[in-house]
């Protein structure tokens, strides 16, 4: 693996900002570095953290969260997204430890194919990747989880629904806000961990694991405070894809090699096929570094800078199940299986290498006077400094030493964000009104340049063009919302967001003379999204609240212009895609039971012109044709119940749990999969009707804490027409019931040790790819 330390650069043109962090204040002045949890008052949430955050001061919606302390005690957290594992209605499609490109967040009414329908921030910096949506065209658009490590997390909060005017329409599903550590005094931490799973599926039977090392250091010296975190993960993941062949009806061609080892099975439509090999098995090394610096100009004005560095080096390898008469693996050519003929292409059991280095910058200056007016200026930048994927088009085993291939280059791709924000309290902190307002600008640039390698796919340069695609989008927004306490037990938040979206510089180039080469015309559209919430303090321990809001989720650059081509697939652009238009509402009752809180939420979402990617096989051209389309209307109705409690039944016992019911169906759609009308009335892909979580922990004594947790999801589908009836197969989306355990032991004041098992019951489940099987995790940590 190449060394990443030499590539840790600090380009001045990348300096930009910790963003979207409206100043946050409580009823009394808060210290500039407060890390308190959001406080609830009259059913609305008041943010008290003075650190950079994406949260507005008044949150008119359901919010759930977890602290860094609870994460350490109860969750086997190897990646930052694991902090969300047991929160209501959430699922991150994490396929292996270190999964950077498919770990998409889903929520109440959004599946794991819709990454652009949620928003993830860390210290106010956008981690969600709105260059595209989901996984498409050989590129990925999952949030950049790797820019936060579990050891950094002070707390993480999740807002459900698009009810705050401070967020764009991508918040329609959920907003995740990570706040990482910023010390008040000297602190140092170090952690070592190891993990392993025994994975057995089809013809694969092996052990896959790795290790992780993390260290952090911080201090506050007068007006200066700083924090550094470094992390290195080495991980071997299980095979994620499998090479399949439908049962042949033809005799072997002359010269076909007889082979054994093919595994019979059924595909997602219960059609018989053979699985002849496992592929996409990543050996990964990830390196992360984070520097945070803050300076207090005065007791009420603070400047903060964040630099994040993330490097991913991985090798993707394949394993053939087929063996010839001599017992040697067979990777390509004409073969005979059970007396029938098959052709193995050179790329069926392919290999590839990835080299990615991404940089994140953030800068913010904010005031915290707790007076009539406060303000913030923030900006951020996310830069694909290096992003290259090399793929062999030569058959194994020769490909392991070189040969022909392709190079996909996304260097220079990225996004930047600017936020100017204010808070006006005309009557002071005790006044009836608190007004949040601001201006935001979010700009995205995508370029995917794919070429044939010169000479050797492993290290050859770019040669003849395969495709070159890209473009830009920009969203400019102004917003305002007023939290008004208009009666002793009543409070409302009324707001609106005015947005202007434009797409420009879109192009596709498939080589000289190709009729698909196009330069697309620019587009510009404007919309207004109103928001409203009302809360009522029914009694001293019971709050009722209602929220409603409109959200516009605009097409991404990748959806508009991201056409790419491979040997067996083709993508069709549609530069005229409409934005998703969602109206979401919820009604919540929340009761404080003393040592616990119980919440019931009814929710509904009506979305027109949902943006969905679909793949159709064209037998005439023998190729898969992909395109993004607008689905006419999807309606979701549901109920969510959540419970959080501590010291239940006996001191030291805690329990949290949730149950979600969601009936999400396609109501209108002029598009179709096979025949007109075949998607109407079907379930929205990857949104299960039922899901649930539960976590019980018990502190046996000051040293020992044990945790048992469970996660459940019901039956779901991947296709718009719900024709994938067999979810427990490669490319299927299955139900699951998974249990986890963790034991934490404090060895004195400074040392802790932990041991955990994820998927204790070794449940085999799928989300197109197979999830991990039973995984063991061991940790040792020291705090100074």
Automatic annotation (TrEMBL):
Residues 58-175 form the TonB-dependent receptor plug domain. GO terms for cellular component: cell outer membrane. Residues 310-760 form the TonB-dependent receptor-like beta-barrel domain. Coiled coil: none annotated. Residues 1-26 form the signal peptide. InterPro entries: Beta-barrel_TonB, Beta-barrel_TonB_sf, Plug_dom, Plug_dom_sf, TonB-dep_rcpt-like. One of its GO terms (molecular function) is siderophore uptake transmembrane transporter activity. It is a multi-pass membrane protein. Its main location: membrane. The keyword NAD does not apply. Belongs to the TonB-dependent receptor family. This is Siderophore receptor protein.
């Amino acid at each position: 693996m190449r060394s990443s330390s030499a590539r840790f650069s600090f380009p001045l043109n990348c300096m930009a900002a910790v963003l979207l962090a409206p100043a946050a204040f409580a009823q009394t002045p808060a210290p500039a570095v407060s890390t308190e949890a959001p406080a609830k008052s009259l059913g609305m949430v008041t943010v008290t953290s003075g650190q950079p955050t994406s949260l507005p001061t008044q949150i008119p919606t359901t919010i759930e969260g977890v602290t860094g302390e609870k994460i350490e005690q109860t969750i086997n957290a190897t990646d930052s997204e694991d902090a969300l594992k047991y929160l209501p209605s959430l699922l991150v499609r994490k396929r292996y430890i270190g999964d950077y490109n498919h770990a998409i967040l889903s929520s109440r009414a959004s599946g794991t194919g819709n990454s652009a329908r949620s928003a993830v921030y860390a210290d106010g910096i956008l981690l969600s990747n709105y260059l595209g949506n989901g996984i498409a065209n050989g590129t990925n658009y999952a949030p950049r989880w790797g820019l936060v490590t579990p050891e950094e997390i002070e707390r993480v909060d999740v807002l459900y629904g698009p009810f705050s005017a401070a967020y764009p329409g991508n918040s329609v599903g959920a907003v995740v806000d990570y706040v990482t550590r910023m010390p008040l005094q000297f602190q140092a931490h170090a952690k070592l961990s190891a993990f392993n799973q025994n994975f057995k599926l089809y013809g694969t039977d092996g052990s896959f694991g790795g290790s992780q090392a993390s260290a952090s250091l911080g201090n506050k010296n007068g007006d200066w405070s700083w924090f550094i975190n470094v992390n290195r993960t080495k991980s071997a993941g299980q095979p994620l894809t499998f090479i399949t062949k439908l049962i042949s009806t033809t005799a072997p061609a002359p010269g076909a090699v007889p082979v054994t080892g093919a595994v019979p099975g059924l595909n997602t439509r219960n059609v018989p096929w053979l699985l002849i090999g496992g592929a996409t098995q990543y050996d990964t090394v990830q390196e992360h570094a984070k520097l945070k610096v803050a300076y207090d100009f005065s007791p009420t004005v603070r400047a903060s800078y964040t630099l994040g560095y993330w490097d991913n080096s991985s090798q993707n390898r394949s394993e053939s199940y087929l063996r010839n008469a001599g017992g040697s693996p067979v990777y390509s050519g004409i073969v005979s299986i059970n007396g029938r003929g098959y052709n193995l292409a050179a790329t069926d059991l392919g290999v590839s290498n990835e080299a990615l280095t991404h940089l994140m910058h953030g800068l913010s200056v904010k005031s915290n006077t707790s007076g009539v007016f406060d303000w913030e200026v923030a900006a951020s930048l996310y830069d694909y400094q290096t992003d290259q994927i090399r793929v062999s088009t030569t058959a194994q085993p020769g490909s392991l030493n070189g040969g022909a291939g392709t190079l996909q280059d996304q260097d220079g791709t990225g996004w930047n964000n600017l936020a100017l924000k204010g808070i006006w309290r005309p009557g002071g902190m005790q006044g009836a009104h608190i007004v949040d307002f601001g201006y935001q600008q979010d700009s995205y640039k995508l370029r995917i340049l794919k070429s044939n390698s010169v000479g050797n796919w492993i290290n050859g340069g770019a040669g003849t063009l395969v495709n070159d695609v890209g473009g830009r989008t920009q969203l400019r927004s102004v917003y305002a919302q007023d939290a008004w306490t208009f009666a002793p037990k009543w409070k409302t938040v009324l707001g609106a967001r005015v947005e202007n979206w434009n797409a420009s510089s879109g192009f596709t180039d498939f080589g000289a003379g190709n009729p698909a080469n196009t330069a697309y015309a620019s587009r510009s559209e404007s919309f207004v999204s109103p928001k409203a919430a009302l809360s009522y303090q029914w009694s001293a321990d019971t709050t009722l609240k209602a929220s409603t809001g409109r959200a516009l989720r605009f097409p991404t650059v990748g959806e508009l212009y991201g056409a790419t081509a491979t040997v067996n697939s083709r993508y069709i652009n549609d530069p005229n895609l409409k934005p998703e238009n969602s109206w979401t509402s919820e009604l919540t009752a929340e009761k404080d039971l003393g040592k616990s809180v119980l919440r019931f939420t009814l929710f509904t979402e009506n979305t027109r012109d949902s943006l969905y990617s679909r793949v159709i096989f064209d037998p005439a051209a023998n190729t898969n044709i992909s395109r993004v389309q607008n689905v006419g209307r999807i309606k979701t109705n549901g109920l969510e119940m959540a419970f959080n409690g501590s010291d239940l039944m006996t001191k030291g016992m805690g329990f949290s749990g949730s149950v979600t019911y969601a009936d999400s169906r396609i109501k209108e759609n002029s598009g179709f999969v096979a025949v007109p009308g075949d998607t109407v009335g079907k379930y929205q892909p990857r949104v299960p009707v039922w899901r649930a979580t539960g976590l019980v922990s018990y502190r046996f004594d000051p040293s020992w804490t044990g945790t048992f947790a469970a996660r459940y999801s019901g039956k779901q589908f991947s296709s718009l027409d719900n024709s994938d009836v067999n979810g427990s197969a490669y490319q299927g989306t299955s139900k699951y019931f998974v249990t986890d355990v963790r034991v934490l032991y404090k060895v004195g004041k400074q040392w802790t040790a932990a041991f955990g098992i994820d998927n204790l019951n070794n449940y085999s489940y799928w989300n197109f790819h197979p999830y991990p099987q039973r995984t063991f995790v061991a940790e040792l940590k020291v705090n100074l």
